[in-house]
């Protein structure tokens, strides 16, 4: 299989406008005849569904939550990037493009990343038009702050609830289209399979989670916007229902998965307190603007943080990366924390954390100023831990956070199945091997508001004259049977262990072997471990109740069944890449200083994987990354 | 620690429900309330019983999915928290805890603690948006909004749509939820243009959905996890009166 990324001709800054100038359109009268399914109502899904409906396509919109507004985009705290250069601090589209590419360790396409930076300008305008209450200066102008991995202030924010506010803007735009009768909303519906007819995506099978009914939906294109699958690690910053099922079912129907093992482990989360723990809460990265990260110089230190004198503290980020210090990119910060924790310098009851200290900021700026900037985060910290971060440092720890990997898409955001598009965190795209903070709200919005409306039309224009298929096509029948068969199988095992048991085992295995650092031996052992766990799952799982009713346990079991397969592909992906880049750190490939050692000669490609069936090895299709406009460099933050 | 739970069990909207007793003795006081519920469910499943269905997703107080009455209070005893942010350290060892769904005619029970809050979406559909199409909006800094106005709009916009205000109100009024959106959009120049149309439509939809009238008890504000102020309701009433006066 030859992968064609379909990058438009021309100079970097002209590619997207050239594409738009040449893309085919669909006449407004004909749009009504071309229904589109959009799975997901996060920033990517809502923005896409609203934009497509405004253009006149009938849209079916799906989410598993009880309201579109609850998609996990809602939880993003820190902000959204745009190269507006309002601060006049040297920012530009080009600089943002370069920062993003470099932040991703040069494992993304130049053209895609440039387009992301280019469209960022418009996104802020869009959000403001929708009423998003971004932070403002006293004079009324928009305010900015800076985020990890960059040296300019290009992050726009709405207190600590930027994702919520952006999502509400998109959700409200979507609700407006629902009211106008242009979007049919299916909340509490989970996509369980993709229907491919004559090689093209033509519909989905979904389960109504409130009744258990299996329903069929036909359309001329399917857009997957189901977010990230970091919940595969069990403990993560994602929501409980986040899943990889939609992309995995699409993968098994022929869509390639790209770089599935590239997971961002976020450095500033609250540490695990016990076995019962169900999620790890993120503390916004913006805290690293003023907080200083340290561990005691003495291993297994018994003293409280405030009793440890200055000279006995190791500010390891400032020490190792003097020019970026506490604002070093996420992969680097997380790995540095793990290195200290593994070496015995961890703090807290479980010795699994590092300190994030605000005493210097409070001393220099005053408590009020610190409170104004981070008050809601400090109070969140207190709610969860009962500790006061104004008087003693926070304890933080890395946690699984973001999937850089996902469905392989070309420049048009189309997967290898014609008519199947993937947008937002569900695709592999602009972030390469490591995502910069505040770039993914941006990517989700840009995909949905600005890119898909053009690229989807370009595809649909070719479908106009084709025959319309209905849900009575035999392929729908067939796929539906497979879906109900799998649900029945899960309900009938009647074993002795709950879904959570398997999910926790899987999560630990992956975190240890396919998390912050990976090795050949570890990955090979993990693959065996996953296979054993999967076998045990199908022998000893217990799911109460039936498929024909509300059944949260069955929902979970279905997701974990898919995770047990995705995990194996992740390990294979990590195993095949014999270099370190971004979040992918192979212990065998590092510099003498312990930094990632990239191998541009042999691995400057996107790993796209093809499903070959159960118990058959997946096949790798490398998509070479060609850099025409920039020179690859060693990513240095020291 | 050990807790005695009295949990509302109800098969569906058409079946009568009742409180059932459960004992749980392996509760860690660092657990969140929902992790305690997970632990209970784990035990029920292993005993071959049906677990308690409850709504939850983000587990960090922002999605608004979790919602239950805990000892008669929406989201439990601690002000400013959602159920998912509540921790077991707030309860005494040996405590008896009542867990029930949010109750309101407009929020029918689906099963156990899960309720149908889709009426909230329909209130937003009636006008809780700015009529701005996507694509080519005006440059953001051409609309100046003072720091104070932006902060005040944010205060209103912070609502998570959880429904605690409705569950707490003796009239089951959705005034706090509805007014928060009306106020958010009326306060800013982009939204103020259609404020009159918006308030009339949203208020009438709120009534059609079967929510009760606001009688200014202010109980909603006390239970709101986001601290949405009843001043929003005053703003809604003002916008409503203004819109009616200027209608013709
Ligand atoms: C805690 C946290 C903080 C973050 N902070 C930031 C930040 O400050 N800045 C930033 O840029 N990024 C941040 N991110 C990342 C960013 O929020 C996400 O990458 C982005 O919001 C993803 O948007 P999305 O639309 O792709 O997916 P989501 O918002 O996750 O939406 C997924 C949608 O798909 C639906 N869905 C999923 N599976 C199915 C299925 N099988 N069937 C039907 N529907 C389904 C869900 O119901 C939901 O509607 C953060 C992420 C987290 C977890
Ligand atoms: S106003 Fe408060 S209580 Fe009511 S829905 Fe919004 S956040 Fe919940
Ligand atoms: S689960 Fe999201 S607010 Fe509680």
Fold and architecture overview:
Chain A: This is succinate dehydrogenase. The complex is a heterodimer of chains A (638) and B (248). With 638 residues, chain A is of the alpha/beta class. Among the domains of chain A are: 268-398, Succinate dehydrogenase/fumarate reductase flavoprotein, catalytic domain (Flavocytochrome C3, Chain A, domain 1), CATH 3.90.700.10; 484-624, Fumarate reductase/succinate dehydrogenase flavoprotein-like, C-terminal domain (Methane Monooxygenase Hydroxylase, Chain G, domain 1), CATH 1.20.58.100. Chain A has 17 helices and 20 strands. Chain A has helices at 15-22, 28-31, 43-55, 93-103, 110-129, 162-179, 245-252, 316-320, 330-345, 359-365, 367-385, 440-460, 474-492, 499-513, 520-540, 552-576, 600-603, and strands at 36-39, 59-62, 80-81, 155-156, 183-186, 189-197, 200-208, 214-218, 221-224, 257-258, 263-269, 292-296, 313-314, 354-357, 394-403, 406-408, 420-422, 427-428, 605-610, 619-624. In chain A, strands 5-2-1-9-17 form a 5-stranded parallel sheet, covered by helices on one side. Chain A has a 5-stranded mixed sheet with strand order 18-16-10-19-20. A 5-stranded antiparallel sheet of chain A has the order 11-15-14-12-13. In chain A, helix 5 (110-129) crosses helix 12 (440-460). A 5-stranded mixed sheet of chain B has the order 2-1-5-3-4. Chain B has 2 domains: 3-111, Beta-grasp domain (Ubiquitin-like (UB roll), Roll); 117-245, Alpha-helical ferredoxin (Fumarate Reductase Iron-sulfur Protein, Chain B, domain 2, Orthogonal Bundle). In chain B, 52% of the residues are buried. Chain B has helices at 33-46, 118-125, 147-157, 164-168, 175-187, 189-192, 195-208, 219-223, 231-245; strands at residues 3-9, 18-24, 69-70, 73-74, 96-100, 109-111, 114-115. Classes of the chains: A alpha/beta (638), B alpha+beta (248). Chains A and B meet through helix 3, helix 5, helix 6, helix 11 and helix 12 of A and helix 1, helix 2 and helix 3 of B. FE2/S2 (inorganic) cluster binds at residues 56-59, 61-66, 82-84 of chain B.
